[in-house]
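Troubleshooting log. The previous structure file for this entry was overwritten by mistake, so regenerating from the original sequence record. Sequence copied from the archived sheet and checked twice against the printout by T.R.
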Amino acid sequence: MIRKIEQKDRQNYIEMVKDFYNSGAAIAPVPQQHIENMFNELISSDRYAECYFIENNNESVGFGLLAKTFSQESGGIVVWLEELYIKPEYRSLGFGKEFFEFIFKNYDYATRFRLETEPDNFRAIKLYKSLGFEPFEYIQFKKGK
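Regenerated output below.
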């Protein structure tokens, strides 16, 4: 089952996000305040981001965090998969694929889906390619405060 995040999920969300950012899936951990800010945004609005809990037998097995933008290049809404986290004991059981099927169905208005991964996350890359994702052949830059 896939459902939208709720206020009652706060602690579980924070724990899974910390695990995600301390794993090989992310470059570095994020400050606690950033996690709190995101949770508060997710609970108060779905304008910029949405989060879904992935459950099995009423137990949270992971989450998917989406961000939305409008792209001139693709001519419409782009849904970014910011984070997809599946607890280690539930990996390779089809939950990631189930999440993507849910997203493709419920965001069928999107003109593009985007995501990123670490180059050595071979399992994720295999999944993404099997779902039709193709790598962009350019370098992405960032500037932060």
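Residues 78 and 129 are 18 Å apart (CA to CA). Archived copy saved in two places this time.
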